[in-house]
Design brief:
UDP-N-acetylmuramoyl-L-alanine:D-glutamate ligase, globular, 40% helix, alpha/beta, 10 strands, 10-stranded mixed beta sheet
Length: 273
């Protein structure tokens, strides 16, 4: 990523192929999704699996929670028991060992604990999306569960993918600029993840900027022109595409750029609907 502590900005066209070598060889890497179920299909496991397949990998999944939402309104959720979640994980991976894991909504402290144990035991690379509330504003996990997520899951994350509100919650302070996003990414790396990408979709400006940092304090700003509009489940698209690209062997920086492009494509398609 360059000299330690350096900040670079990437805003040109993609300079590498979108098809990974394993896909070209006819082998699709497997990504395990551990997340909630959104009956509207806009977010959660359904959106995750679609994004992973779009990125050229194969998705298997374990549902942690069932939500009641339609994309605009959120009426609540029920977290599944931890043994039910782990039963799904074991069944999904028994014959199809994953190359990466995408962790989204967990819904309870018990589910955080069993997934943390699974990641620690297997050593799989993991993309962790630290969700604490739905797009409509309703909580997706209680404070005790989120504290456990911060303590147990963050150190096991290959890449942590908070948006600005999630980064603010994890750090306990406001983030008001792109520079502050980069500083937040570096600070979050100190909590254990290998890399942190703070997503800038909630910030203003002509460019949409995501700030990537690693444990050594290196930072990269991944930028592209901001598109009008938004799409439900954009965080799921980003983190799942990133997990699929990591599973295929891409470097984190390249995987982040392709994840950003996948979100942009979804926004463009939503505008045509």
């Amino acid at each position: 990523m360059g000299p330690c502590g350096a900040v670079r900005r990437l805003d040109g066209p993609l300079a590498y192929p979108c098809n990974h070598p394993q896909a070209e060889a006819g082998v699709r890497p497997i990504v395990l999704v551990v997340a909630g179920f959104d009956p509207s299909g806009g977010a959660g496991v359904l959106r995750d699996c679609a994004a992973i397949e779009q990125a050229g990998a194969q998705a298997v999944a374990a549902i942690t929670s069932v939500t009641f939402q339609d994309g605009g309104r959120f009426d609540g959720y029920v977290a599944l028991p931890a043994d039910v979640v782990m039963g799904q994980v074991e069944s999904a991976t028994r014959l199809k060992p994953p190359a990466a894991v995408k962790v989204g909504m967990l819904g309870s402290r018990e589910n955080v604990d069993v997934i943390a144990d699974f990641l620690a035991r297997t050593g799989l690379q993991a993309v962790v999306d630290p969700l604490f509330k739905a797009s409509a504003g309703a909580p997706l996990i209680d404070d005790v569960g989120y504290g456990c997520l911060k303590e147990r899951l963050l150190p096991l994350a290959t890449v942590l993918t908070p948006n600005v509100p999630e980064a603010e919650r994890l750090l306990g302070r406001a983030i008001t600029s792109v520079a502050a996003m980069g500083e937040a990414a570096v600070e979050l790396c100190r909590l254990g993840p290998g890399w942190v990408v703070v997503k800038g979709g909630h910030m203003g400006g002509a460019m949409a900027v995501d700030c990537l940092a690693d444990r050594h304090g290196n930072r990269v700003e991944v930028a592209r022109p901001r598109l009008a509009g938004k799409v439900h489940g954009s965080g799921c698209i980003f983190s799942s595409t990133l997990a699929a690209r990591l599973a295929s062997g891409l470097l984190v920086e390249d995987a982040v750029r392709l994840a950003q492009e996948a979100v942009a494509s979804a926004i463009r398609w939503a505008g045509l609907a």
